[in-house]
Amino acid sequence: MEFRARDHVRGLTALLSVVSLALVFGAVLGAIPRAAIPTAPDAVFDAIPHANALISTVAIVTIVTGVRFIKRGDVEKHQRMMLASFLLFATFLVLYLYKVVVKGTTPFPAQGPEVVYQFIYLPTLAIHILLAVICVPVVYYAMLLALTRPISEVFGTQHARFGRIAASLWLVSFVLGNVVYLLLYVVY
């Protein structure tokens, strides 16, 4: 019996989602041993938040551009922009997880006002994290529907519906991630 990814999109989505989220939560909760990861110079760790803010900003542009291309009917350019968005997201995640595993999470600066921390930073961070987690299976599902079929067959799937949801979640999550970055590294 031959395995065909196109016949197992839901199962592959579940598998990829579980593995991805296990890595994320494993890193954040300290389940991945720091000794297992090589340590870079401090300058690399200092640069990661700034690089990730840039990556997020570029991802926002590629997602918006990809949506505009599909609205115009330019499927090939849409595909390129969405794949670029996914690669940017993956790069962001690898850098973020590397920093978290080796150095831990970044606390809100002590000089930041408590009111900003409680009523702006924490809600923004919580919504960003929630949307990022929800986004993972939705993005995988939309992407796998598109990648496992010829273009002519993609239109007969739920790709467009899940793609709209994924793009919306992605955009809001990336924007809120940049707000968190600004609060942690620029404003305070």
UniProtKB/TrEMBL annotation:
Gene Ontology MF annotations: cytochrome-c oxidase activity
Sorted UniProt keywords: Membrane, Transmembrane, Transmembrane helix
Record GO biological process: respiratory electron transport chain
Membrane-crossing segments per the record: 12-32, 52-70, 82-99, 119-144, 165-187
Pfam family, one: DUF420
Protein's name according to its UniProt entry: DUF420 domain-containing protein
GO CC terms of this entry: membrane
Signal peptide as annotated in the record: none
Keyword Transmembrane helix on entry: yes
Database matches in InterPro entries: Cyt_c_oxidase_su3_a-hlx (IPR013833), DUF420 (IPR007352)
